[in-house]
Every structure is written in structure tokens, then in C-alpha cells.
């Protein structure tokens, strides 16, 4: 047996944080520490929205670059794909996050594996995320035809000037379209926009 995996807890609610720490302390393969020193961070939230996804991204950019396992009280349709696109390596519903399951997810994340419960995995395999669903998704909507055309050419490796010429747009219009996409979905750059669109079934 190797050294225990260092794991920290990140939560906005101190009650959620305390409960998650208690669960992790029952896992023999884990060593609970401060999030800043952890190899894996467990982020515990009630529901998933823009602020929570930003927390996933922020934790991932810490100097130790910890893997993130998200534990959520409830998930809306499409949340699984949004979470994976934000960089999480594991996802559990809080009602299912007992010590064995949470410990398994943390150890898997430390190995750079991704774990999802069977029900959530079926969502990823069977159906792309649809930001138009009636459950109140945080997304602003599907890509427009213009956005999809621009993003497809970005995915093919074309530069701004080439895309503008092919679509009879100005370079400024192409730049604006890409910027709008990255801002709406809270993405870092063009490459992230293409990867997100593919994962979320938007392209």
C-alpha cells in the first residue's frame, strides 16, 4: 500500500465542510489536510451554478494544481458536462457520498482518472447537455448558427483572418463572436471553447 493521498475540503458552508471532513477522515487511504497542501480537493456544494463552476476552476489553478472531486446536493440536467468541462475529475451526489465511494473518487482523481456514479455516467453517454432545458440551467442558450460556424473553423485550426474570409465576416466580427462564447460559458480561450462545445454537445 502506498502513501495516503492528501485531500482538502473546500466549501462555502461550514456545516458542509465539517461533514465532508468527517467522511474523509473515515477513509484509511486518505490524509486530510488544508486545501492548499492537498493533492486532491473535495468541493462540496448544494447546487451547481456559475459561482460553483468558478470555484472548480479557481481550485484547479492553485499552485499545487489539485484534482477536484465535486460533491453536490442536487444536479440539474447538463450539470455533469458543465462540471467536467470546468476541470473536475470526479462527481458525486451528496446522498451517495459515503466514505467508501468518496474515498474511491478521491484516489481515482489522484491517479488522474475520472469517476461518475452509474446514473450520472448514463447522462453523459446517452444525451448531450441542453442548456435550454426547463430546469433553469445557468447557460444562456445554445450556440447560434454564426457562432457554430466560427467555432467549427476554429476547431479546424484556422486563424481569425482565414475564418473572416471564409465566412465573409470582418476579422473584428470573428474576434467578437469568439469572445462572446468564451464569456458566456466562462471559458479561458479558443481551445477551451472548442473543447467545451464538443463535450457539451453544442458543436
Automatic annotation (TrEMBL):
Residues 136-201 form the HTH luxR-type domain. Pfam families: GerE. SMART domains: HTH_LUXR. It comes from the Bacteria. GO terms for molecular function: DNA binding. Keywords: DNA-binding, Transcription, Transcription regulation. The keyword Transcription applies. This is Response regulator transcription factor. It comes from Streptomyces doudnae. The lineage of its organism: Bacteria, Bacillati, Actinomycetota, Actinomycetes, Kitasatosporales.
